[in-house]
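Sequence in, structure out. Go.
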Amino acid sequence: MKLKYIIVVAFLISMCLTTKNSYAQDNSTKLKLYGNVRIRTENDWNSQKKDGSMRDDRYRARFRLRLGFTYKLNDNISFGGRLRSGNPLATQSPHINFGDELIPKLINIDKAYIKASWQSGSFWAGKNSYPFWKQNELFWDDDATPEGIAIKQTVKLNKQNKIDFISGLFLLDNNISNGFGEKAKFFGVQTVINSSVGKTWVQAALGYYNFNEDTAQVDVRLQDLDYQLLQAGANISFPIFDENKIKIGFDLSYNTNSYAETMHNFNQVLGYVASVKLGSLNKSGDWLLGYYFAHIEKYAVVPGYAQDDWVRWGSSTITRSSNFQGHEIRVAYAFAKKHNLVARLYIVDGIETEAGGAYKETGNRFRIDWNIGF
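Output:
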């Protein structure tokens, strides 16, 4: 019932905003197209399974295609959508391998939403980008676009300081045989502080995210488990070396949910990431160097929605992106705005053995991405 009330209120707000600005509609209507293509080469080696055997070394070439639009109906109402390549069951990845006897590749709907905006905030309903602030994909993958509603309100304290309040409610399954109360869903709230002093910029966030599994069916990604994640993150950036900025960040995730002690790795609920980046990719000639250290325990994140970059564990559609620690080294160069080359090296080891296994999993990966967009 609460969701119904939220939707009704949001609809009424949208109608009011539309009516208020109907006379200015012709002047504010705007269509924006955007898209990007990625060509990727990827090499995996030294990947041990939980039974001690080794996965075959793998080299593959891949691509990603995305094309989207936004349409501004008036000053306050807009809508948008996006298409992406990839297997529709692969929530964490839009990439497709080259080959397969030259057969045509799959294209799917990645975004479809309506958005209402006002001077200090916004509300959207549909399928859209992850609305909460984050500085990497270790806790949530950029390609996982939630389906539901989200609202953001900004409070500006002064020119240098502002606070964002973000909340959202999303459905994770579509089994029509049960009511809303039984469906798997994800609710989150977050507060983000943005502050600057001279050329130094600080961001800090604290959020709570509740994942409830569907008791009426098997949850493929939640694995029939609830998650109550308390997450915090912060970074500080400042210029060095001829105005090139260095950014130092830290993220923490802690699952406050209690699991039965009979579960394998029941107490592995902590995750953290430390990172440092130098440079940017904003214009021609820019370069970037980055380093990440990640320690993600088994239940510190929902592995079926977190990043799929660091490990090749899992299936072709779901990456088990937890129970690991390791390093990422990143080097990138920009040929122009939205045109760059990015090389990344991952060295990963398992933290604990997986259920039914006697060995910790391992894996190394080297990847080069050529990205170009408009």
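Check: The radius of gyration is 22 Å. The chain has one domain: 2-373.
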